[in-house]
Task: inverse folding
């Protein structure tokens, strides 16, 4: 079955390497699918959609992270463009959060490079990070500060100009005016998510990283947040890298998805087309299949 | 170095202090208690010596200066620990905040908080116990500056230790000044100590300050060179502590410790 994704040229991993056991000298094989509209010459890489290079807000090249005996991320390459929402999917331990942490500069890569809005993160860390922001369910804002205090504090840290006006705008945009003097620690999950997103938008980021932004939200709140994030991508011209375990949400929000398994990009493409291309009914089924039998998917495409 | 991120670190601490009186209390409560206890001890000793020796400047003055040093050190480490307690590292260091800006923010926070402590101590010691602190004269400035610099260095070192060893190592931070106090001769000359302790003492800048203070109070010749050596060691300690912090930070970024830093994960 041809992998005929609009964006992707997927490459598949070597069979012998596992996340818990890194065998030196193992070789990778690449399978470029006939019919892929964009193909990358690199292994384990996904070429970005056609468009000007200046549109790329994130360019990850041969990004790898290994710990003694553990290969967490294995030389992946991909890009995110402005106004694009890219889903980074994969089972627990696939390397999603490791990848995001490297892009955020809190974890140094073992190999490869990261460019945010064209700025090399390794060489100009502060300049590159000034172009990005993030929200993650595991990185809550200090609970002992109020909503407005947190926004002012991070606004200064991100060196946001005309901060007072910016905070006022965000409080309004995210319906936080009534909560501005409430300490973040006593907010509900949905309210905390809104505050975290407001913080993530403080500096008008070119790149927004959202690690499970709707986890622990009720369906109504999650729907509102999804709509807001889509609007953010469209109106603020930022690119978004999104991780989620909710495949329904991924289909709704993401223009493109990257499936990670054992630190490698296993599959990439349009989340609405990928299931059909792989003979399954839903993205969730495809996810489960990839999570359980990544090598069978590899064999299917290699064959 | 941009001033606004530094101001952000400072503003955060200001919000914490303003929002929680419990946090403001330690700024002056413990040092005030120290001054009161030692004030009465010196008053008692003065009455016992029947005017032959005035213990107030040598004992109460030394307590005041030692507490100032302790407050400076704890000012840095407490501000750092606020980020540990609220698991704020990911938010902070995924931002365009440089290590230099962060540490500068911690140091300015410490200056602000320890100034409050110093003022409270001075008011108490001078008004209640009659300490003529400023009688030490112009040398007070290098004395306090040396203690300030070493307090900053020790605060940065303590923060680096917590970053490296995890939140549970917080208990290591608080007794650090007490651990050093026997070696620096706060209340007695270094010559009182065994040789090996004297050798250690000579590596510690406060030893030069307290030796100098006793010399001034006793109207003995005062060695400016010796005090300059103390000041130089304190400056060197700041550089070394900053270097150590940077190395620990790089290690934390390389190993993933920073990304997963929390009480649970680093125990």
Result:
């Amino acid at each position: 079955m041809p992998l005929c994704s609009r964006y992707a040229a997927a490459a598949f991993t070597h069979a012998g390497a596992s996340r818990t056991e890194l065998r030196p000298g193992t070789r990778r094989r690449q399978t470029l699918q006939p019919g892929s509209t964009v193909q990358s010459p690199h292994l384990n890489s996904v070429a970005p959609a056609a468009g000007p290079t200046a549109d790329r807000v994130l360019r990850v090249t041969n990004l790898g992270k290994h710990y003694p005996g553990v290969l967490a991320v294995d030389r992946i390459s991909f890009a995110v463009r402005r106004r694009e929402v890219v889903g980074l999917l994969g089972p627990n331990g696939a390397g999603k959060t490791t990848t995001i942490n490297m892009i955020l500069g809190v974890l140094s890569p073992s190999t490869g490079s990261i460019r945010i809005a064209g700025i090399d993160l390794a060489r100009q860390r502060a300049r590159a990070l000034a172009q990005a922001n993030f929200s993650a369910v595991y990185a809550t804002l200090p609970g002992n500060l109020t909503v407005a205090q947190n926004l002012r504090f991070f606004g200064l840290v991100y060196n946001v100009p005309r901060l007072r006006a910016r905070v006022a705008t965000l409080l309004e945009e995210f319906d936080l005016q009534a909560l501005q003097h409430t300490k973040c620690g006593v907010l509900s999950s949905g309210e905390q998510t809104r505050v975290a997103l407001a913080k993530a938008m403080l500096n008008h980021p070119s790149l927004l990283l959202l690690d499970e932004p709707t986890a622990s939200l009720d369906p109504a709140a999650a729907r509102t947040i999804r709509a807001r994030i889509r609007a953010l991508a469209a109106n603020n011209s930022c690119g978004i890298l999104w991780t989620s375990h909710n495949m329904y949400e991924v289909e709704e929000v993401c223009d493109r998805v990257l499936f990670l398994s054992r630190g490698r990009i296993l599959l990439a493409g349009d989340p609405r087309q990928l299931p059909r291309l792989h003979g399954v009914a839903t993205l969730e089924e495809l996810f489960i299949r990839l999570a359980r039998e990544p090598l069978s998917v590899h064999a299917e495409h290699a064959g | 170095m941009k001033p606004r991120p530094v101001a952000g670190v400072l503003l955060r601490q200001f919000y914490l202090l303003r929002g929680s009186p419990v946090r403001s209390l330690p700024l002056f409560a413990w040092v005030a208690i120290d001054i009161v206890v030692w004030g009465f001890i010196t008053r008692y000793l003065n009455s016992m010596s029947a005017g032959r020796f005035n213990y107030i400047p040598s004992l109460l003055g030394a307590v005041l200066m030692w507490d100032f040093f302790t407050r400076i050190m704890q000012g840095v480490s407490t501000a750092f620990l606020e980020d540990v307690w609220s698991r704020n590292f990911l938010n902070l260091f995924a931002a365009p905040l440089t290590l230099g800006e962060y540490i500068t923010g911690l140091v300015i926070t410490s200056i602000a908080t320890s100034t409050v402590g110093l003022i409270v101590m001075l008011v108490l010691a001078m008004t209640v116990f009659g300490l003529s602190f400023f009688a030490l004269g112009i040398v007070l400035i290098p004395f306090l500056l040396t203690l300030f610099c070493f307090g900053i260095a020790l605060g940065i070192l303590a923060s680096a230790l917590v970053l490296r060893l995890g939140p549970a190592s917080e208990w290591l931070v608080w007794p650090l000044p007490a651990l050093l106090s026997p070696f620096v001769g706060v209340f007695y000359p270094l010559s009182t100590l065994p040789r090996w302790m004297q050798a250690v003492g000579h590596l510690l800048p406060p030893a030069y300050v307290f030796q100098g203070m006793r010399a001034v109070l006793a109207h003995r010749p005062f060695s400016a060179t010796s005090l300059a050596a103390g000041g130089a060691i304190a400056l060197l300690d700041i550089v070394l502590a900053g270097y150590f912090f940077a190395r620990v930070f790089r290690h934390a970024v390389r190993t993933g410790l920073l990304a997963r830093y929390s009480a649970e994960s680093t125990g």
